[in-house]
Amino acid sequence: MGSPKCPVCSASVRTENLSKHLQSVHPREAKPEMVLEAERKATQTVRPPPPRSFSASLPRNVIIVVLILALLAGGAWVVATSPAYSPYNANTPVLQMCMQESPGFARHDHVLLSITITGVPQQVPMNIGVAPGCMRPVHTHDTTGRIHVESSVAHEFTLADFFAVWNQPFSKERILGYTTDTSHTIVFRVDGLQNTQFEQWPFPHNTNPDDPPKVAISYETR
Length: 222
Ligand SMILES: [Zn+2]
Ligand SMILES: [Zn+2]
What we know:
It is a single chain. The protein is of the alpha+beta class. The protein has two domains: about 15-45, no CATH class; about 95-220, Ferric Hydroxamate Uptake Protein, Chain A, domain 1 (Beta Complex), CATH 2.170.130. Helices cover about 25% and strands about 20% of the residues. It is built from four helices and eleven strands, in the order αααββββββαβββββ. The strands form three sheets. Strands 1, 2, 5, 6, 9, 10 and 11 form a seven-stranded mixed β-sheet that branches. The relative contact order is 0.11. The mean pLDDT is about 85. The structure holds zinc ion (2 copies). One zinc ion binds near residues 139 and 141.
C-alpha cells in the first residue's frame, strides 16, 4: 500500500496521519469531507474490522441448541460406556440379551461341552449365539465345545440357556434329536461325575480359561 498524498499539498502522508496533517497544516483548505474521508481510511488501515468469527455469524439460539445436543450426546456416551449401565438385569431372559465386548463383562466363564450319541461324538457348532449385531451371553466361537458365558450384567445361566440359544432340546429325556426309551438313557456328567441337574446345571463362576469344567451329555444304551 503506497503512501497516499495530501489532497491539498500533494505531500506524501501516511494514511493514519492524513487527518491530523489536514487539520494542523491546512486548517482552512481542508474540507470537512476530506478530514472525514481521511479518518475513515485511517481506521480501515490501522484497524481493519476483524473478520466475522464463526460463532458471531451464527444466531445465538443455534449455538445454544448445538451446545445442548453436545451435552446430551456426551451424557449418552458416558451412560453407554459406563460399566454400571446395561439395559439388562439379572432376570433378563437369555434370548433377549445381546452382549458387547466393551466396556467389559461382569462375568466371563467357560465350560467344555461334549455330546455323545451311542458312543459317537457330536460336533458342537461354532458361533452358536453369534449373529451380526447380537452376541448372546452364552455362545460358542469354535467347534471345540467351549461354551463362553460372557455377560455385561450379573446373571446366572444354566445349560438350558445355552440350549435355548442353540435352539436344541436338552433334558434328562431328550438331547438333540434323541429321546430316551426302554433301551436308551441320557447320562449327564460334570468333570467325570454323574450329575442329576441336566439342563438346570448352572454355569459356574470364576472358571479357569485354561482348564474349564467339562460337561458331558451322553445318550447311551441302558
Ligand atoms: Zn470366552
Ligand atoms: Zn465370546
